Amino acid sequence: MTIRVLLADDETLIRDAVAALLALQDDLEVVAVAGSGDEALAAALRHQPDVALLDLQMPGLDGLEVAERLAAELPSCGSVIVTSHGRPGYLRRALETGVRGFLPKTSSAQVLAEAVRTVHRGGRYVDPELAAEAIAAGASPLTARESDVLELAADGAPVEEIAARAHLSPGTVRNTSRPPSPSSAWPTGTRRSGWRASAGGSRRRPRGPSMAPVSRPRPPWVYRTVVALLRPLVSLITRPRRWRGAEHLPDGPFVVVANHLSVFDPFTLVHFLVDNGVYPRVLAKESLWRFPVVGWVVRQVRAVPVHRETAGAAAALEAAEQALAEGDAVLLYPEGTTTQDPDLWPMTAKTGAARLALRTGATVVPVAQWGAHRVIPPIGTGFRPFPPTPSDVVAGPPVDLGDLLDRADDPAAWQEATDRIMRRITEQLAQIRGEQPPATPFVRRPHRG
Residue 253: CB partners within 8 Å, gap ≥ 6? Predict the structure, then answer.
């Protein structure tokens, strides 16, 4: 029996790639594709699919609105949300709407196909890690039995063990949830690498103390297209990827600060963030705007130019403040350039990130990364894509700057906040490397053009 599938995603590259992958399954047939919610609803009513695969965010009706309409107007069609915005709140809303499946875009083609089959059989298919986070964050629309199964699956228990502990058959366990594949066939998505729910752990997303809750805006299509094109290449170059700490990324606006090893590490860091639904506004040196192709790209992705060591540097902070006010995440490197430390530890930093945090009250998430320097060395030239390089990206809990917020114009507070930020990044890097950092950070040399 062939299962008729409707596929709706507003990004043509992603939609066509997924359609091609599903076409390789003998029992699945993509009978219609759509680029917006309104098109998806009309196509579903016209083609009468068995299962609708819906992107969460689309022009017009979003995926949840389409699913709700289909539940009322075409109840024979099961809806599956496949998204790069896999937050617990979205999962709860989806299940309340009647959605039968919910999984991240990092799922492999095989996992996606199995989800379609499960929903077509009348079952429910939910990504176990996301379900466990939703359960930990508050009230869950899942049944108690489904909650037990999904929490066990998130802990990595095999199907037979889950079945025994939950007093279910292995088939029922498989229909409730299947652990996600470690390999991803979807161009973008949300991954919580290395994270598992733990008893008593809070999963509420942090917010800056004075930042009003603002929904993060949809990134420009050029940004999404560039990510879709570069992500497979970065994935080939960086393996294995030991990326952790996604639970520390807040909803809404926040500031990401990281150590800077190589001109390649922005690719791995943005990859990590985009995998978790965050398309950051990046502060980058203004010389990039002078290159014909690169300059066009950085303008389209709304990067913020930094005129280092000039009076114009203050304008970058003002632009970053505006980005936060608009709901964006902002990524910057406190060191201002790749580290000059001979052993690649973080060096002394500028106060820009601290000033931005104290002036806005935004949450500051420290990120340590390691491995990009083997792809492109920090000094000199050369590009070494093969063999693949192990990549570590670790986001830590937000840096506590609450006691400094009332001193936002005090240079001493800027320096104290900067020291706290760099200390946290260095501690996280030391854990990655398994080494002891120097007692005193390397003092950066002045920029020479």
Answer: 208, 211, 214, 216, 323, 324, 325, 326, 327, 328, 329, 330, 362
